[in-house]
Write a structure and sequence with these properties.
The complex is a heterodimer of chains A (252) and B (195). Chain A has 252 residues and is mainly alpha-helical. Chain A has 2 domains: 3-62; 109-251, Serine Threonine Protein Phosphatase 5, Tetratricopeptide repeat. Chain A has helices spanning 3-12, 18-30, 32-106, 112-123, 136-149, 153-163, 170-183, 187-198, 207-218, 223-236, 242-251. Chain B has 2 domains: 6-95; 131-187. In chain B, 66% of the residues lie in helices and 0% in strands. Chain B starts with 5 loop residues before the first helix and ends in a 7-residue tail after the last helix. In chain B, 32% of the residues are buried. The chains are: A mainly alpha (252), B mainly alpha (195). Chains A and B meet through helix 1, helix 2, helix 3 and helix 5 of A and helix 2, helix 3, helix 4, helix 6 and helix 7 of B.
């Protein structure tokens, strides 16, 4: 081991006195050969730091996969319970259908279609423009939103469809695509888009709630039951739209 | 949510030893939701968000180990702040196609421990970029040398390293790692040793 290496290491490990440190720093400026060795020491330590960061990134990448894998298993288990629950609901629905029909005749509740229509009119008459810069996909998104707000739905659909293949803009594009289908009365396509949205891993995901809104608005056979089921899931899991879902569940 | 409180994580990381990895993993899991948040808010890919998140956690660990984390904010806010900055950097690099064009000195470089004049002199030498392929040289250094240097770089004391790597004492570790640095320095070439 060279004395010079030991001396340089002592400086960076903080074991020199104030006087020795001042001398070391002065030598870095006045002695080019010494400065070169200090530079080499720093390059070595920085490279080691970089290698260490790489090692930790790999460890965290493994942990990332572990956590994501765990979430997928949890979702799969959730889906399993969901299907068991779904069957149970159907059996219960079949058994109680007569009672429900009688109850509906005598105690008429607000129509789901009316609630959904009111929600759509209040929330989807215009879309809000995205924040941030106006480059690339963001610019296109704003054009799509502008077309929607001007009720040029055909143009809006084209823009959102194109953007829905762009990975960065995909969640917002799919959401806006679903909303555009909903307001234009294409309920099947709206449900399809909100299904896709609901499966995305987002911080706030209104997919399931919007799907319930479409089913309520469409009002075909079985839609109301399914809508209630989705609203219950939204309320129980405190997903986006849970506030409205709780109120509607009391009314429906 | 993290399994441990902020204080437990900070103390666990500083305490070192083999338990440190547990607290590093816990810290990583604690704010994992930031990845989804980053994807949505900054329009970056899942891969980029995960990478920014890893770098955030690495940076927090470094700050804590080096006693630079002053605890003025909760770890959650601290993580959010660092992660947001990294996401904004990624977003800007993406939108201006300047990705990988940044060759400036890393902000955590040891050179910043020097005062202004000395730093300028040393940075000028480093900027000549004479020492290339350092990662390759580290690979050629030998596993034991590399490991002892990486443990030290990770903030473990010579005493702890002696325990992990079955050296007789902290002094032996210190001598060994300085010898390893000498060896690496020779591999870098142009070794004008000053007496």
């Amino acid at each position: 081991m060279s004395d010079l290496m030991s001396y340089i290491a002592s400086y960076f490990e903080g074991s020199l006195t104030a006087g020795e440190r001042a001398l070391f720093e002065e030598r870095c400026v006045s002695d080019p050969e010494f400065a070169r060795e200090v530079a080499a020491y720093i390059v070595m330590r920085d490279s080691l730091k970089q290698a260490l960061a790489g090692q930790k990134r790999n460890e965290f990448a493994g942990l990332y996969e572990e956590i994501k894998g765990g979430e997928q298993v949890k979702n799969a288990e959730g889906r399993k319970s969901y299907y068991l629950f779904k069957n149970f609901v159907w059996y219960a629905a079949a058994a109680c259908i007569g009672l429900i029909a009688t109850w509906l005749i005598f105690f008429r509740s607000p129509e789901p279609e009316d609630l959904a229509q009111e929600y759509v009119a209040t929330n989807f008459s215009t879309l809000s423009t995205t924040m941030g810069g106006v480059t690339g996909s963001k610019k296109d998104m704003q054009q799509g939103i502008a077309a929607f707000n001007e009720k040029q739905y055909k143009k809006a659909l084209q823009v959102f469809q194109t953007l829905s293949t762009d990975s960065a803009a995909r969640p917002e594009a799919v959401k806006n695509l679903g909303i555009t289908y909903l307001v234009t009365g294409d309920h099947s396509n709206a449900i399809r888009q909100f299904d896709v949205l609901a499966k995305m891993d987002l911080y706030v995901n209104p997919g399931l709630f919007y799907k319930a809104v479409v089913l309520m608005k469409r009002g075909q056979d079985g839609d109301r039951v399914m809508a209630k089921k989705y609203l219950k899931q939204v309320a129980d899991r405190d997903l986006a739209g849970s506030k409205e879902a709780k109120v509607w569940l009391e009314k429906l | 949510m993290a399994l441990h409180s902020d204080t437990e994580i900070i103390e666990g990381l500083k305490r070192g030893g083999s338990q440190r990895r547990i607290f590093e993993r816990d810290l990583y899991q604690g704010y994992f939701y930031l990845i989804s948040h980053g994807i949505k808010k900054y329009n970056i890919t899942a891969e980029d968000a995960a990478s920014a998140y890893s770098d955030t956690i690495i940076s927090i660990i470094d700050q804590i180990i080096a006693n630079r984390f002053e605890g003025r904010s909760a770890l959650k806010s601290y993580a959010y702040q660092i992660f947001s900055n990294k996401c904004v950097d990624l977003f800007r690099k993406d939108t201006t196609n300047k990705r990988k064009a940044d060759h400036g000195t890393a902000l955590d470089s040891l050179v910043f421990e020097l005062p202004d004049k000395a730093r300028t002199a040393i940075q000028q030498i480093i900027a000549k970029d004479e020492w290339r392929n350092m990662m390759q040289k580290l690979q050629e250094l030998g596993e034991k040398c590399k490991q002892v240097l990486l443990f030290f770089e990770d903030g473990y004391s010579d005493k702890e390293i002696a325990g992990f790597m079955e050296y007789n004492s902290a002094e032996v570790v210190k001598t060994s790692r300085l010898r390893c640095l000498d060896k690496l320095r020779k591999m870098m070439g142009t070794n004008d040793i000053v007496k």
